[in-house]
Specification:
The protein is mainly α and about 55 residues long. The chain has helices at about 5-35, 35-55. The protein has one domain.
Length: about 55
């Protein structure tokens, strides 16, 4: 088999893996965002990043 004919199959496989990974991450994200504790931690992180940004200006 020639090298050129393998490339589309390889790309297709990589895209399928990426799609599966994104799907799993979306499921994890929705579970995490349902937790009030996670939302509070995300707020704290955003607040700290804002302060850090202001200090760097």
């Amino acid at each position: 088999m020639q090298k050129e004919s393998l490339q589309p199959k390889r790309l297709e496989g990589m895209l399928m893996i990426l799609a599966n990974l994104c799907s799993n991450l979306e499921c994890s994200r929705s579970v995490l965002l349902e937790s009030p504790k996670v939302l509070f931690l995300m707020f704290e992180i955003c607040f700290m990043l804002t302060i850090l940004y202001c200090l760097c200006i």
